[in-house]
Write a structure and sequence with these properties.
The chain is built from 23 helices and 16 strands. The chain is α/β, with parallel strands linked by helices. It has 3 domains: 121 residues, 3-Layer(bba) Sandwich (Glucose Oxidase, domain 1), CATH 3.50.30; 108 residues, Orthogonal Bundle (Enzyme I, Chain A, domain 2), CATH 1.10.274; 314 residues, Phosphoenolpyruvate-binding domains (TIM Barrel, Alpha-Beta Barrel), CATH 3.20.20.60. Helix 6 links the parallel strand 4 and strand 5. The longest helix has 30 residues.
Length: 572
């Protein structure tokens, strides 16, 4: 019997195929003590070796198929398996409590998971809980001698149905056979959703019940355009969705024709469509999708998954590669946004009650100038090879921006004095992600060359709501009038001083938000590479002059729902 299940549209497209139910293996065991502790520790170390071998192979596949930044999660998994604290605690429980290896693993992994999950205001640490779960499941399976179904074993066209897809699962998806997937849990910013968009696999997440309702081998439709899963569809539904899928394919082909076209509105206004990247390998996707800029290069990936800080030359090579590949198009590189919630094994930092509001980003860099100056020198050297722009994150006060720019100019003077070539046309800007800075944008515009609005953080800070917390996720409202007023103020402040304003948060690629942002005068929209061509196509149908006439009206509405309805009825 046909059943329709609503979820969250995580990755656009439509898939029609037989279901492949990806269930967790039975990893139950009898808790027990042992006499031969050395034999138990050997069993543990053998399972660790097998797990590391598998993860290295999965990481290599992920790097090849998805790029280095998407594969970094497996560096974290490998670090757990080599972490003296994690492994040491397991061995200690075997020694002190005479526990079996699997019992000791269960105790230690449960402790780590509960510790990470208790940090309810910290999305990054909750992701670490998912990492521990994934790693522990693999390790426990090898301890018990249980084999579990790998997505890599799929050899016919399917849609995967699962509770969730772990990083290990998604890295093993073969796009030739996996046409789509649907999960019980997750949101648009969950790991599986991000990976599905990178792989261009239609996906619906957060359905809550699809795993319980689906039957293995039955036909299913995954509608990643509208966030719906149809189990056991009728012939008429299959025909209708096949036509819808074909129409979407045709639409994609039409979008591809715009790859080398400039981004112009219906009335001839020109805006820039850029992309957000995490490593040099991502530039290929930007170029293939007609990106006119890199609106955000997150440099922290250079620092993760390693045992020590990257050298100046290592950073220089990475930055140089990106600006050269972009062939004169602008590249905005954000200085290190690490600390607080994103910890590095080799960089001890204080424990914090609220790391998202803590010692991170520019706050860390101004304190640890040795790290900051090394990165700035690498950036300045790379600026000679293209149109590089430097952006400081997490700026809250004018003094922070002035201090960061002062250090930058000191390093520039040193390089020039030593005969090192540095760009004569170097723009220095800032992320607008803290409400205090956004309110004072008119003063910041006198000091910064550009603004890039980081809406992911700006929204959650303004609304006082963690966007990863499902209990308050309803408050993550990009189109709330309070957010739009802040965005409008930032853009107007930049323009008053003759500067440009961009946006590098999820909102920039949102089809509903694009007319609003165009009306507000946003100069650069930076998004995931796969969103560029749909956005360009949409902008071709919009008149900036006409939309601007609606600015006062939608800024004076009271709720996000009112704004969304206004866009739908008045601004198409």
């Amino acid at each position: 019997m046909t059943e329709k299940i609503k979820g969250i549209a995580a990755s656009a497209g439509i898939a029609i195929a037989k279901t492949f139910i990806l269930r967790n293996p039975d990893l139950s065991f009898e808790r027990k003590t042992v006499e031969d502790k050395e034999a138990e520790k050997k069993k543990l170390n053998d399972a660790l070796d097998i797990s590391k071998k598998e993860l290295n192979e999965i990481k290599a596949t992920a790097e090849r198929e998805l790029g280095k930044d998407k594969a970094e999660v497996f560096s974290a998994h490998l670090m757990f398996l080599s972490d003296p604290e994690f492994v040491g605690q397991i061995e200690s429980k075997i020694d002190s409590d005479s526990l079996s290896a699997e019992s000791a693993l269960q105790d230690v992994s449960t402790f780590f998971i509960q510790t990470f999950e208790s940090m309810s205001d910290n999305a990054y640490m909750r992701e670490r809980a998912a990492d521990v779960r994934d790693v522990s499941k693999r390790l426990l399976a090898h301890l018990l001698g249980v084999s579990f179904t790998s997505p890599a074993s799929i050899t016919e066209e399917t849609v995967i149905i699962a509770e969730d897809l772990t990083p290990s699962d998604t890295a093993q998806l073969n796009r030739k056979y996996v046409k789509g997937f649907a999960t019980n849990v997750g949101g648009r910013t969950s790991h599986s959703a991000i990976m599905s968009r990178s792989m261009e696999i239609p996906a619906v997440v957060g359905t809550k019940i699809v795993l319980e309702k689906a039957k293995d081998g039955e036909t299913a439709i995954v509608d990643g355009l509208n966030g719906e899963v149809i189990l056991d569809p009728t012939d008429e539904e299959i025909k209708a969705y096949s036509q819808k899928a074909a129409a979407y394919k045709e639409q994609q082909a039409e979008w591809k024709k715009l790859v080398n076209e400039p981004t112009k509105t219906k009335d001839g206004a020109h805006v820039i469509l850029g992309a957000n990247i995490g490593n040099p390998g991502d530039v290929t996707g930007v170029v293939n999708n007609g990106g006119e800029a890199i609106g955000l290069y997150r440099t922290e990936f250079l620092y993760m998954g390693r045992d020590q800080l990257p050298t100046e030359d290592e950073q220089f090579d990475a930055y140089k590669e990106v600006v050269e590949k972009m062939k004169g198009k602008p590249v905005v590189i954000r200085t290190l946004d690490i600390g607080g919630d994103k910890k590095l094994k080799y960089l001890p930092l204080p424990e914090e009650m609220n790391p998202f509001l803590g010692f991170r980003a520019i706050r860390l860099c101004l304190e640890r100038q040795d790290i900051f100056r090394t990165q700035l020198r690498a950036l300045l050297r790379a600026s000679a090879f293209g149109k590089l722009r430097i952006m400081f994150p997490m700026i809250a006060t004018i003094n922070e921006f002035r201090e960061a720019k002062k250090i930058l100019l000191e390093e520039k003077d040193k390089l020039v004095a030593a005969g090192t070539k540095v760009s004569d046309d170097l723009q220095v800007g800032m992320m607008m992600e803290i409400p205090a800075a956004a309110v004072l944008a008119d003063q910041f515009a006198k000091e910064a060359d550009f603004f890039s609005i980081g809406t992911n953080d700006l929204i959650q800070y303004t609304m006082a709501a963690d966007r990863m917390n499902e209990h308050v996720s309803y408050l993550y409202q990009p189109c709330n009038p309070s957010i739009l007023r802040l965005v409008s103020h930032v853009i107007d402040a930049a323009h008053k001083e003759g500067h440009w304003a961009g946006m590098c948060g999820e909102m920039a690629g949102d089809a509903t938000a694009i007319p609003l942002l165009l009306a507000l005068g946003l100069d650069e929209f930076s998004m995931s590479a796969t969103s560029i061509l749909p956005a360009r196509s949409q902008l071709l149908t919009l008149s900036q002059e006409e939309l601007a006439k609606h600015k006062e009206a939608f800024l004076n509405l009271s709720t996000a729902d009112e704004v969304l309805e206004y866009v739908k009825t008045k601004m198409k």
